[in-house]
Automatic annotation (TrEMBL):
It is an enzyme of class 2 (transferase). Pfam families: DHHC. InterPro entries: Palmitoyltrfase_DHHC (IPR001594), PFA4/ZDH16/20/ERF2-like (IPR039859). One of its GO terms (molecular function) is protein-cysteine S-palmitoyltransferase activity. Keywords: Acyltransferase, Membrane, Transferase, Transmembrane, Transmembrane helix. Its main location: membrane. It comes from the Eukaryota. It catalyses: L-cysteinyl-[protein] + hexadecanoyl-CoA = S-hexadecanoyl-L-cysteinyl-[protein] + CoA. It comes from Aegilops tauschii subsp. strangulata (Goatgrass). This is S-acyltransferase. It is found in: Membrane.
Length: 232
């Protein structure tokens, strides 16, 4: 039976390589244009148009073109239409609810992205344990890698928690004088000014974060992933 099996395989293999090409193969070689994957071409073109419009639609070279229109639609128009649709279908209350959800998700400190981050890390690690741990230890990988992966993921999680709970450098009426002397005003870019919300002098390089509603020294940006600010 073994000999027969090898013989059969050999015959199939030989036919595949040196036998008469099939009609499909001949068409491919001839390249008469019948096999162009139009669906794939259309999908690629639409994807490219959307990506370019989204990222570069506000460039001056696209002013007045349909690329700019697509950019407007993607960045604000579609949401406005959606709000109008909600209002028409379910009334002003429903529209205000959507606006409230948007405000909570985008303009207020909330743990949505933190939960998502933990879910992504935890879920991915779970999948790796389920699918790949059976190959450890293996010919190339020692059993050490099982424990090493736990250590690496734990370090990441610990750093995430530490970063999430550390103070970014909140400027208060108690510590403002410290920050002012640490970052003196140069009167060119940074002029002495009061924060209209916190009612304290805003030290040079500090900025009021409208999401956290506080002044932060050496402000860079508010990070939704850690509900904090990258700053001092
Ligand atoms: Zn913030
Ligand atoms: Zn402020």
């Amino acid at each position: 039976p073994l000999t027969l099996s090898i013989e059969t395989q050999f015959c199939v293999g030989r036919e595949g390589w040196s036998g008469e090409p099939t009609r499909r193969q001949r068409r491919g070689i001839a390249g008469d244009g019948m096999d162009v994957p139009w669906l794939l071409v259309a999908h690629g073109s639409v994807t490219a148009l959307v990506v370019v419009s989204f990222l570069c639609g506000q460039w001056p070279i696209f002013e007045g073109t349909f690329v700019q229109s697509i950019n407007h639609f993607l960045t604000s128009g579609a949401y406005r239409h959606f709000l109008r649709l909600v209002q028409a279908a379910c009334g002003t209350g429903a529209r205000d609810l959507v606006l409230g959800v948007e405000q909570y998700c985008c303009d207020r400190p909330n743990p949505i992205l933190q939960v998502l981050y933990v879910a992504i890390i935890g879920g991915t690690y779970f999948i790796i344990v389920q699918s790949s741990f059976k190959y450890i230890p293996g010919y190339y990988v020692s059993v050490l890698h099982r424990y090493l992966s736990i250590v690496v993921v734990s370090i990441g999680a610990i750093l995430f928690v530490l970063t999430s709970f550390s103070d970014p450098g909140t400027v208060t009426s108690e510590n403002v004088s410290q920050y002012v002397s640490a970052y003196p005003f140069d009167n060119i870019i940074y002029v002495e000014k009061e924060c209209s919300t916190c009612r304290i002098t805003r030290p040079a390089r500090a900025k009021h974060c409208r999401i956290c509603n506080r002044c932060v020294a050496r402000f860079d940006h508010h990070c939704g992933w850690m509900v904090l600010l990258f700053a001092a």
